[in-house]
Amino acid sequence: MGTAPEKSEQELLKELTEFDETKVGVKGLVDSGIAKIPNIFVFPKRNQESRNNNKSSNVNDPCQLPIIDFDGIEKNRQSRRETVEQIRQAMEKWGFFQMVNHGVPVNSLNGLLRSIKEFHEQPEEVRKGYYSRDHTKKIKYYTTGDMYQTKAAQWRDTLSLDFDDSDNLDLHSLPELCRDGIEEYIYCLTGVRNQLSELLSEALGLEKDHLGNMECFEIRRLLCHYYPPCPEPDLTLGIMKHSDPYYLTILLQDSIGGFQVFHKNQWLDVPPIEGSLLVNAGDLLQLVTNDKFKSVEHRVIAGRTGPRISAACFMYPDVDNQFKPFGPIKELLSETNPAKYRETSIIDYLRYYAGKGLDGVKSLPHFQLIPAEK
Where is the Fe2OG dioxygenase domain (predicted)? Predict the structure, then answer.
């Protein structure tokens, strides 16, 4: 049997728009009982690597994402020094690490996952009231934020929360059933953010308040993802290959799995550890550290089991500093390590990143002073 001809961009755009206007999300498709995924979720030939390489190549590979225990680092100087060194190595070699004993109660972690599930499993008509692509809305729900740029939808729905000030959350428009869990988690995460800011500064050989004084580690966005079970997981992805544009990401994921990191030219599974948080450097942290810390590509594969639930918290400058230019930290530069990137603001970086969508190509090279090696 021959392969069906690939649809034109105009046809795909029409189908994307028709799906978007239903406001039912991926969950609505699954609830309707589909046995095959719509064409808009099938990745085009230009993304064949992402579509056909869904399986991790680390079945017999001993590589494992670093797991760092934060227990006792505030009371024991030696323990803190060891943790700082572990963070340095993890961020230089992996750009990721899993954090355990971080201080956020398990009840708060589970409460957030439960809140996300409850939001996405509300009656369809209730969910539709939150569906929007209006970037000015602080609270909204949608399927694949960049699907019109990439011309392909990805197998997830997202509740997006934007914060001007994480100390004064305005969640009144959220349904009451999920409001408390989200608010408590953000409150608990503030302490972790402060701790990470200090430890990352020390791992760079700087004073512990250096990154904090740069005002680039504000809690600004929480993306609450819901990945329904997929009838044809090999044809699509939950989230395609990308790196995060921000300074730092803290990810909470449930027990289902599916998260993968691109390390040494292969995809490695990151099995969930109960009670852990996954930390990764974003593009702008790589920029200001002049490539000392790495912003590494990652993705989420689709699966037949679900729903998979996760929450990604992004840290970057607040609205008062959104036009402030950031460049490589001067204390990290020398004659043998000159600046590799030009200064840019968070608003300009995000504008460029959003404009091209998740196309499998990193945004950082666009801001390089020195051309990337071929």
Answer: 218-317
